[in-house]
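Project standup — Tuesday

K.O.: blocked on the structure for the chain from last sprint. Re-posting the sequence here as requested.
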Amino acid sequence: MVHTVVATPYGAAMTISFVLALCLVLSPVDGPVIAGFEPSPGYSGHWGVDIAADPGSEVRAPAAGVITFAGQVAGMKSVTIRLDEEVRVSLSYLSSTEVAVGDRVEAGAMVGRSGLAHGEHALHVSVRVGGAYVDPIPYLSCPRGTIRLLPDR
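H.V.: unblocked you, prediction finished:
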């Protein structure tokens, strides 16, 4: 059982309890984390992590799932992968996308190419469990496997 405190866009914090069966198999790009998870109320702050990537690097699906979004948010290309009913991973600040809504992807499949995240050559990665953003680092640092978060009900 894992208990984690997560931030909501409205400034409140809540605790989510879930069983962590396996973690993300792959980092979507090769590189170090250059900006951490630092959310703030009202959608300010940083609701994911940025991973350094050479311009145009292949961005891979970190786990198998279904594409639920492939398009632009605030002028920046993004892809969201639904891993199960509760877990979504978004990969943002892409220079191009290679998938469409409804596509099923396997871990390691190319979903796009990296661009600029906050002025840096990087990829922005966010993870949502239910409707809450959580720090992606614990899931990117796990032994090989697939993310499987099961709500504690």
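K.O.: great, moving the ticket to review. The longest strand covers residues 87-97. Residues 15-22, 144-150 have pLDDT under 50 and may be disordered.
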